Amino acid sequence: MGEQQTVTISCPQCASPFSFREGDRNAPCPSCATLLTVSGEAGIPRFLVEERIDLAQARAGARRAVAAAGGDPRVVERLRFEGGELCFLPFWRLRGHAAGWRWTERETVVREEVYDENGMKTVREVRGPSECATESVMVSVDYSSPACDVSRFGLRGIAVASAVLPLKGMDFAQVSRRGTVFDPVKGADEVRREAVAQARARGGGKGVLRSAGRLSLCGERLALISYPVWSLTFSRGERLYPVTMDGVNGRVLSGRLPAATRIALLRPLLTVTLLVFVFTIHLLFGCLATAGFLGWLAANGGLSAERVAAWFFALVERNGEVDLG
Q1: Of 42, 224, 235, 301, which one is least surrounded by beta carbons within 10 A?
Q2: CA atoms of 160 and 279, how far apart (whole Å)
Q3: Average model confidence (pLDDT) across the chain
Q4: DSSP symbol at 84
Q5: E strands of the chain, at which residues?
Q6: Is residue 168 pLDDT above 50, yes or no?
Q7: Do 17 and 9 form a contact (C-beta atoms < 8 A)?
Q8: To the nearest 5 percent, what fractions of the chain are helix, strand and coil?
Q9: Rounded to whole angstroms, what are the CA distances from 235 to 15, 83, 297, 321?
Q10: pTM for this structure?
């Protein structure tokens, strides 16, 4: 048998270096004791942020969020819960430095003193000649990007969360029993290009007219981090209402649920009473009142048989929906 090889990586939690032996899948960081796992063809470590909100807490939190956003508590209580799924969404986390050079052309400002006919001095600023300079650049990089399409979940990035929350080595078999693990679609090379582009956009400062340069990553620490999100489904009647919640802090990320409803009994009764009263005064007055009422309906939402029927027979009115997240 050949001698086992050793691979050295950096802990994404504390940045301390330590080594994996060939064949090892899990090992604790000697500095911060974070359990780490190396997986994938490129040896990119995969980690997990564990959920702190269970299904019951997520369901109750969604109902509270609707009530806090202006929804009718009675409507919220009658919402039917159809089910929930814990989803582990993959995010790239890249830390390190971008080093290289940058050439810039900057505009300058010249202060001019102008005296008027009375000898009063006025100082004004005018544009001066452009200045060109070439400089060495070294900027820190801390970049987070979704590894797949997570737009429907309402979660954009986890750079701050992954920096302060404890990470755990990814055990696919164990995690798959708790929820659905999403596979990464975006590759590591694309993430590197995005991180360099972000670092390049940060440079230059004020007054830059043109710039050119080249940056490269160095001291790179790249990892895949799976973040927990609850995907919930509520229903009212035949309509389904999806809601997504952060599995760590319970914050509603996206969703839409029905708002309050009201019973409109006075409106049709008052309309019929007034029309009957006018007809009892005179037939012509009744016809004019009916025409005026239909004209008002046409000017406020359109005139149709469905519109007239809704005015008299649709006694339950829904006041739209409540947007969450």
Answers
A1: 42
A2: 71
A3: 78
A4: E
A5: 6-10, 17-21, 26-28, 35-37, 46-48, 80-106, 109-115, 121-127, 131-146, 168-169, 180-181, 208-236, 239-246, 252-258, 261-263, 316-318, 321-324
A6: yes
A7: yes
A8: 30, 40, 30
A9: 46, 10, 32, 13
A10: 0.63
Query: Is the predicted pLDDT of residue 191 greater than 60, yes or no?
Result: yes
Strand partners, 242: 233
Cβ(123)–Cβ(110) below 8 Å: no
Mention every residue, 6+ apart, whose C-beta is less than 8 A from residue 119.
Answer: none
Is residue 3 over pLDDT 50? no
HSE of 38 in the Cβ direction (CA atoms, 13 Å)? Answer: 21
CA distance 170 to 50: 10
**Measured distance CA(181)–CA(189) in Å, rounded:** 22
Give CA–CA dist 9/30, Å, rounded: 12
Instruction: Report whether pLDDT(231) > 90.
Output: yes
How many residues make up the chain in this entry? 325
CA distance 225 to 167: 8
Q: Which of 197, 181, 225 is nearest to 85 (CA)?
A: 181
Amino acid code (one letter) for 236 = R
Q: Which amino acid is at 224?
A: L
Q: Given this model, what pLDDT does residue 286 score?
A: 79
Identify the residue whose tokens are 């929930």: 84
| CA separation, residue 211 to residues 1, 34, 104, 136, 137 (Å) | 55, 42, 4, 13, 13
Reading the block at residue 22, the tokens are: 């060939």
Partners of residue 221 on adjacent β-strands: 95
For the ranges 49-53, 59-63, 154-158, which has the lowest average pLDDT? 154-158
Rounded to whole angstroms, the Cα distance separating 242 from 322 reads 12
